[in-house]
Amino acid sequence: MRAAEIREMETAALLEQVEAKRAELFNLKLNWVTNKLEDPSEMRTVRKDIARMLTVLRERELAAELVEGEANA
Fold first, then answer.
1. Which one of 17, 25, 43, 45 is separated from 32 by 20 to 30 angstroms, measured CA to CA?
2. Structural domain count of the chain
3. DSSP class of 72
4. Domain CATH code at residue 7
5. Domain limits for position 24
6. What confidence tens digit (pLDDT) does each residue in 6-65 have?
C-alpha cells in the first residue's frame, strides 16, 4: 500500500486497517513458527504497511495540534 493511498483514507478506516494488518502480521508470525509460511518477505511488507499507516496517523495528529495551537494564539 502506498503512502498516497493511505493519506486518502479516513482516520477511522485507517485505524481499522491498522488493526487488520496487525492481525495479519500475527498470523504470519504463527505460520513462520510452524514452518507453513511460503513467502517470508510478506512479513516485512505488512510491517512496513503498518509503519506507513501509523506515520500518517501521527502526521494528522500533529497537524491537528498545530491548527489548535494557532487558533489559541
1. 17
2. 1
3. H
4. 1.10.287.310
5. 3-72
6. 999 999 999 999 999 999 999 999 999 999 989 999 999 999 999 999 999 999 999 999
